[in-house]
Amino acid sequence: MNSAVVISAVALQMSCVAGLLAIAVLAIVLSRSNSSTAVVYSATLALCVVGLFGSIRWLVGDTANATELTLPFGLPWLGAHFRIDALASFFLVVVNLGGAAASLFGLGYGHHDPAPHRVLLFFPAFLAGMNLVVLADDAFSYLLCWEFMSLASWALVMAHHREAGTAKAGYVYLVMASFGTLALLLAFGLLAGPAGDYGFAAIRAAQHTPYVAALVLILMLLGAGSKAGLVPLHVWLPLAHPAAPSHVSALMSGVMTKVAIYGFIRVVFDLLGPPTWSASVIVLFLGGITAVMGILYAMMEKDLKRLLAYSTIENVGIIFVSLGLALAFQANGLKLAAALAFTGALFHVLNHSFFKSLLFFGAGAVLMSTGERDMDKLGGLIHRMPFSSFAILVGCVAISALPPFNGFVSEWLIFQAMLQSPQLPQWALKIMVPAVGALLALAAALAAACFVKAFGITFLGRPRSPAAETAHEVDRYSLSAMFILAALCLLAGILPGLVIDALSPITMEILGSRMPMQANVPWLSIVPIAESESSYNGLLVMVFITVSASLAVYFIHRFASHALRRGPAWGCGFSDPTPAAQYSGGSFAQPIRRVFGTLVFRAHDHVEMPAPGDIRPARLRIELHDLVWEGLYAPIANAVGLSADLLNRLQFLTIRRYLSLVFGTLVTLLLVLAIWS
Amino acid sequence: MVVISDILVQGAQMLLVLLLAPLLTGFVRKIKARLVRRQGASVFQPYRDLLRLLRKEVVLAENASWLFRVTPYVTFAAIWVAAALVPTFATGLLFNWTADLIAIVALLGSARFFLALAGMDVGTSFGGIGSSREVMIAALAEPAMLLIVFCMALVAGSTQLSTVANFMALSNVGLRVSLGMAVIALIMVALAENARIPVDNPATHLELTMVHEAMVLEYSGRHLAMIEFGAYLKLLLYISLIACVFLPWKIAVFGTGPLSYAIGAGAYLVKLAAAGFFLALFETATAKMRVFRIPQFLGAALMLGLLGTLLLFVSRSF
Predict the structure, then answer these.
(1) What is the DSSP letter of A559?
(2) A318 and A462 share a domain?
């Protein structure tokens, strides 16, 4: 009976994928029909919900043995292998939950799309691709599905191809995606070795030399890291994610980056065998830099969706820091600490998929009702979009890692893992971990600043444009998608023990150890190591805050004055004549720009003050440099352009020169062959 | 029975911090006034201020949203809960394991998050300038705070304040360089977090370098009372924190009976008075910094925290 259930688990996921692909085909047929939006999104919603429950059941149910399915295509001697184990089932939960929420949001949002048929075909295909990457169990199917996912998302990025900037976003994305796949291809080639056995089971069983392991780690950091958005490979992300329709942006930021992280975990933790401690140094370093750089970029941004995309980079950095910690502990045989760090990383993966999807939906809602993404043209939306703004506020608090919401729990777990670092024997790690911890704390505080800015400028204050003045609340589908995710943010924050216990099969499978069982801890607290060391109880914190706030409200309303009068804002007697005089995104970021930006962005404020008597307005111009782009990508792009120009001359040769060129090449190759052997 | 006495002690602490917080602020103000040879208001003036504010009507800006009206209560509640979780006169309180030091710091972060949002709600430049500077200071103070936690956890093996206080009170920790650095860093962070001189001036809101007072400029009546009360509580919280970790002298260890609780409470009052006196002395003796000197000030705190942590790696006896 057991085996029947087990086989149906992977078959169930594969039939969901087949269903999604069928919907993609259906979308072509329906493309000119009015009902296509509703049909496609409700069908993807239904399939994602089925996939979600299937994978949850697999994760919390019987996970003793992984299940496989081999299909007769792919490499002829290999076939296409698909497999569910605990790690895959967790990422299937993330993918399908994000997919279900995005479909629900799409039911409302899709009606505002100017060209729905450009989205409807690729949306189910993109979901199918992400599911397949997680399910793939041999290198060939993995790479094929990875490319399928990349191309489907690229097509979605290009959906609004007439908008300014989309063409560039699509181009940069395509180049970076090809680069990433190349790195993955080389990594799998190294893993498979000269015998060329591409099945994951064979790779896992093989012994890898330290050189191969180090090379594979670097290639995975390039390949998976470029898809996830590790600095300095992140440049495509803030261009491409915002260019897509908002529910697709939510999928790309909230889910596709997680699929990339899945790839990294699968190869580095699972296939590569026992890690070395030096691997963790580079992962920790990159993660810390990514976290701080990502959020500093976000702080400088005034486009709401780009700000969210940059904040994704920050969160990916946090996850990589945690994975680096897990590698360090695992390499030194500190099993419990490794499980703690790894659980923190997975928990943050889940959390980020919740709140980043929620926030992108929020940005979509704002876009739907005002047509604006520029925060400096918004403001005061809390009065006109009360429900959306409440849900988005929850998302902002959660992503800023503030209790009692979920973002805090995962960051708290990561800090607790860092506090275990004195046990590490290596000096480099001992010194590095507190420094990375400080970077992470800096990133968390900057994230709070960034989301005060994002919410404050967009939703609070006075409207800065007619569009913001006439905004209206969005439809019920979009609202319910946002509220479901907001509720999940709160639930994961106040009941973290349940999530940690659900994640324990994965740490058992990957690391061979797990965090202590949290279900037995009284009062639903979480205790990573021992109660005398540290514990946190989100539920009680939430109850205490509610009770003490209610007490305060009760006493105030019982004993204090009730009088309330509305009047013009005080502002120390200075009444601002126009909403344009409010603080804008740029002015809110000014202190942080001045403290960090001079170093990181070579920021400079130019004030043009006209001479007395001159009636020109004074102007403030802010100069920011993206040093990664200017220092790394621009020179490469220039070099490519230059060499293309040089090689271009080869196009205009005479036939004699062509023949001699061919001859020369042939001789050279033969010579090389002769010398080599 | 044990649970009831636990709840009583916990409730006593929650009430105690509520009652003492305005007195502490009044005491600091009095000392500051005496130091510059003024008579100064009575130490009970903050209570009278709160009562007066509670009786007054609220004048709300026309476009203030619900967030603006909810924030004073949320902020106050978050700070009160955080203050109730820090051991004051006794360790091992009932709810001590609800949150460790990292969570307490994050609770204060929640309070600040909402206050900064409320500063931007009305849409005046004053609120914006206050909020943007407040979040900048927080961004600088939090890494320093984390390194202090790190340093402390390395010595005591825990981030649970009750455990740390017990460890510091009972075992022979002695004088340590790293703890000295941590305590200086913590005092610097506490000055910044509480908007005290030299980072901010709590006595004025009409200076160009203002931070906290500008952010809450639009508040009046009972709302302002809650915010002021929150600020008093936060000062008490940080002093309790420094006292329980670095000066756990006579703190009542869990389950040692009413007498030691009484001694602990007395010792706590003495510590508060001493800390208030030194705070007033320091504030009188220093001038406020320019706002863009603050990164250097808090950067020094960060470096002290880092040095303290690294010294502990070199040798556990530092």
Answers:
(1) H
(2) yes
Q: With a CB-CB cutoff of 8 Å, which residues 413-452 of chain A face chain B?
A: 415-416, 418-419, 422, 427, 430-431, 434-435, 437-442, 444-446, 448-449, 451-452
pLDDT of residue A257: 96
> Which is higher by pLDDT, B249 or B186?
B186
- Contact yes or no for A434 and B143 at CB 8 A: no
Going from N- to C-terminal start, the domains of chain B cover 2-314
Q: Which of A541, A578, A600 to mutate to test the interface with B (most CBs of B within 10 A)?
A: A541
Question: Do the beta carbons of residue A499 and residue A369 sit within 8 Å?
Answer: no
Q: Are A423 and A417 in contact (CB under 8 A)?
A: no
Three-state SS at B90? strand
Residues A638 and A509 placed together within one structural domain of the fold: no
Parent domain of A378: 274-513
Q: What is the distance between the alpha carbons of residues B73 and A290, in angstroms, rounded to a whole number?
A: 36
Range A20-45 average pLDDT: 90
Q: Which of A475, A497, A513 is the last residue of a domain?
A: A513
- Which residue among A495, A513, A531 closes a domain? A513
CA distance A225 to A438: 23
Q: Which residue of B has its CA nearest to A553?
A: B73
Q: Residue A593 domain-assigned?
A: no
* pTM attached to this predicted model: 0.95
The span from the CA of A198 to the CA of A219, in Å, is: 17
HEC string for B218-286 = CCCHHHHHHHHHHHHHHHHHHHHHHHHHHCCCCCECCCCCHHHHHHHHHHHHHHHHHHHHHHHHHHHHC
Question: Does residue B315 surpass a pLDDT of 90?
Answer: no
Q: How does pLDDT run across B195-218, given as a tens digit for each residue?
A: 898 888 877 756 555 788 888 889
Tokens 């589908």 identify what position? A477
Pairwise CA distance, residues A537 & A282, whole Å: 33
The complex's ipTM?
0.95
Burial class (CB in 10 A: 0-12, 13-18, 19+), A435: middle
Phi, psi angles (nearest 5°) of residue A567: -150, 175
Residue A337 lies in a domain: yes
Is B57 close to A548, i.e. CB distance below 8 A?
A: no
3-state secondary structure of B220: coil
Of A531, A540, A379, the residue nearest A460 (C-alpha)? A379
Residue A577 maps to a domain = no
The per-residue b/e assignment along A413-424, b for 16 or more CB within 10 angstroms, e otherwise, is bbbbbbbbbbeb
Single-letter amino acid, residue A384: R
Residue A97 banded pLDDT, cuts 50, 70, 90: very high
For residue A536, give the nearest of B99, B138, B221 by CB distance. B99
Pairing of strands A564-567, B58-61: parallel
Burial classification of residue A628, based on how many CB atoms lie within 10 Å of its CB (0-12 exposed, 13-18 middle, 19 or more buried): middle
Residue A611 inside a domain? The answer is no
Sign for the CA dihedral angle at A401, A407, A409, A413 comes to negative
Which residues is A136 bridged to in the sheet?
A82
- Helical (H) or strand (E) element with A651: none
Instruction: Tell me the residues of chain A between 378 and 417 that have a Cβ less than 8 Å away from chain B.
Output: 379-380, 382-383, 386, 393, 397, 400-403, 408, 412, 415-416
Give me the phi and psi of A564, to 5 degrees please.
Answer: -150, 130
- In A301-399, which residue ranges form alpha helices assigned H by DSSP? 304-331, 335-370, 381-384, 386-399
Asked whether the beta carbons of A216 and A263 are under 8 A apart, the reply is no
Query: Residue A314 and residue A294: Cα distance in Å, rounded?
Result: 4
Q: Is the peptide bond before A404 cis (omega within 30 degrees of 0)?
A: yes
Question: How many domains does chain A contain in total?
Answer: 2
Do A343 and A468 share a domain, yes or no?
A: yes
The strand pair at A80-84 and A619-623 is best described as unpaired
| Element spanning A69, H or E | strand A67-71
Residue A510 Cα to chain centre, angstroms: 22
Q: With an 8 Å Cβ cutoff, are A561 and B222 in contact?
A: yes
